[in-house]
Amino acid sequence: MKVSPVPNALNQYSATNSSHPYNQITVHTASNGVHTVSLNRPQFRNPFSRVMTKELDDAFSRACDNPQVRVIVLRGNGEHFSSGHDLGTKEHSLDLQQDSYTSMGYPGPSGHYKMWSDLDVEMCLRWRQLSKPLIIGIQGYCIYHACAVMSCGDIVIAADNAKFMPSLVEVTTLPWDLALNTKKVKEILMMQRFILSHEAERLGLVNKVVEGGKLDTELQRLASIVAKGDPFHLRMMKQAANSAQDNAGYTAHIRSSLSHWMSYRWQWTEHQRMHPTRPDRLAPVQQALGEDIMSWSRAAKYAQRHLQIEGSK
Fold this sequence. Notes:
By secondary structure, this protein is α/β, with parallel strands linked by helices.
């Protein structure tokens, strides 16, 4: 998949000017109060490890406590925003071995539950409520947990080459992102298909789609506009909008989804033990790129174009 390169003017994000060094992210604060945080594991498509998650949380917390920061921008270095969870890089595996959940007193299923609850569910719920606006830019793949992180954004801009796969039940905001259009939600979840950028815009997953090479420029332009607002007023706007979802059950639903996921994961583990050769689609990226499924993903764009043509007659 060809992805437009990041403009040279924004290569500054590959180096951090923070007094607090990070290993898997970079940060940069501009003079206009725009604080840019970049996922920085492009050689692996920016997967979320435990280290990266904790570094992001620390960077967000410091930005919120820094009076010079007015707006936070989250983006990914390289061709993709993120491929989702880290499923086995050497550094992630070593981190889990050195500080395992079993050694913390959470063996077996309890350890998996604590990991997914702490690093995924509760972290995303906290990032959604950051005291400062969070603007997110998506290019290339945005798969599984990456979609959960994307949902924390107050405003999301996507490159025209973005591919979203939000069908991970562990943390699923899709019913809310699609305004409780449950039939469309179930279609996307059950097919485990990609949502292409223009369908994502039509469904309300993202606010705007731009050409891939213009993503970073548009992110900074939008952030500079939002940064001119009164910080407390911006926070109250965000709280008012989030409260509407919370009063309808958003937070309770997100937490309950983890229980559904735990039940499935342990059933799936036992199923794999008994049927090791049966190919179930737990991580179906390659299958989703097949013509039988991609035809559904592309159809939404064609349908929208047809409606525009008919409406112009």
